[in-house]
Write a structure and sequence with these properties.
About 80% of the residues lie in helices and about 0% in strands. It contains 14 helices and no strands.
Length: about 350
């Protein structure tokens, strides 16, 4: 029996290590594709030249000033979305929990519209702070209203807060048509015409959230067994959920496509499901792999949108909505089958 258990454990570690290597390879591949592909498809030689031997040619400018910042921003946003989704699903013990579905992203959207309509702010460097505090406000409201004790109450509070934010957002846009015109493109969710300055000021918050997520991996494993079992294992379920919600808020406010490039949805919903199907429920593997595969999906959708858009492009927020909607239906049907 001992040898059998050791063999199963060894096989599990082998599978997880294989998935980790595959995720790293996929991430490198999608980064290369994101830099090389667009309305002007550039050979890999031009990409290499622009990155390491910049001489000011048209190809160099396209890669250095447009595609490289866009790719780096997509990396940060994808990491934030994937990790925030995994954290939120573990905290609420709800497989369909996602920052975009629980009102956090909509808090950022309301703050963006408020900044444009009331304060006439249009600079991305200024709007990023409105989005940051709007997302944090959404997190605080969900946590305070739902409490950190019951996962179900957190979900219900998130749905309620989302409905309120959507109503406020639509009301302000109807009253102020200039705000509607100004914010329509932002609210679609895009990586186009964004720069790294919008993320640079928030980078410390993003890094802090990554550290917190890493520390929470083991306590979240205990909380998954139930609050009583978690306490027996030395974990504090209330504190774990509260700190986890803070991390989700920071991620959603910085690199989850709210502060940087619009409310991109469903990435945080899909990625943790894929990861758990591959490596199981251990959050010590789920969290880092979600952080790796989040940008793979996001940048993959961004590249696909460029290729399908012809002379223009389909914004990444629309691509993730289409793919995510299909995935949401599949997840819902799978959960229904499991319950039967």
């Amino acid at each position: 029996m001992v040898l059998l258990g050791e063999r199963v454990t060894s096989r599990r570690w082998g599978v997880r290590a294989t998935v980790l290597v595959a995720a790293l390879v996929a991430l490198v591949a999608v980064v290369v594709l994101s830099i090389a592909f667009g309305s002007n498809r550039l050979p890999l030689g031009s990409v290499w030249h622009a990155l390491f031997s910049y001489s000011g040619t048209f190809e160099d400018v396209v890669i250095r000033d447009d595609r490289l910042p866009r790719t780096l921003l997509g990396l940060a946003v994808g990491v934030g979305l994937g990790l925030a989704g995994a954290l939120l699903q573990a905290i609420t013990r709800n497989p369909v929990a996602d920052p975009g579905l629980l009102g956090i992203n909509h808090g950022a959207a309301v703050a963006i519209v408020l900044g444009g309509a009331v304060f006439s702010v249009s600079s991305p460097q200024q709007l990023v702070w409105f989005a940051f505090f709007g997302a944090l406000a959404g997190t605080v409201l969900v946590t305070v209203i739902g409490g950190s004790v019951s996962p179900l109450r957190l979900v219900l509070a998130g749905v309620a807060v989302q409905a309120v934010f959507v109503g406020i957002n639509q009301g302000m846009q109807m009253i102020n048509t200039h705000s509607l015109d100004q914010m329509r493109y932002w609210l679609v969710g895009s990586l186009v015409n964004r720069n790294l300055d919008s993320l640079a000021g928030l980078l410390p918050f993003f890094l802090a959230a990554l550290v917190v997520a890493g520390v929470l991996a083991r306590p979240l494993n205990a909380v998954a067994l139930g609050d009583d079992s978690a306490r027996g294992l030395g974990a504090n379920p209330v504190l774990t959920r509260a700190v986890g919600m803070i991390a989700v808020g920071l991620l959603s406010a910085t690199a989850t496509a709210t502060a940087a490039c619009g409310p991109i949805a469903f990435v945080g919903l899909m990625i943790p499901h894929v990861v758990r199907a591959l490596v199981g429920q251990d959050e010590r593997w789920v969290l880092p792999l979600s952080a790796l595969l989040g940008p793979v999906l996001l940048l993959g959708c961004d590249v696909l949108g460029r290729l399908l858009g012809g002379n223009g492009e389909i914004q990444v927020g629309l691509m993730t909505d289409v793919i995510g909607g299909i995935a949401f239906v599949i997840v819902a049907r799978r959960l229904k089958a499991v319950r039967r």
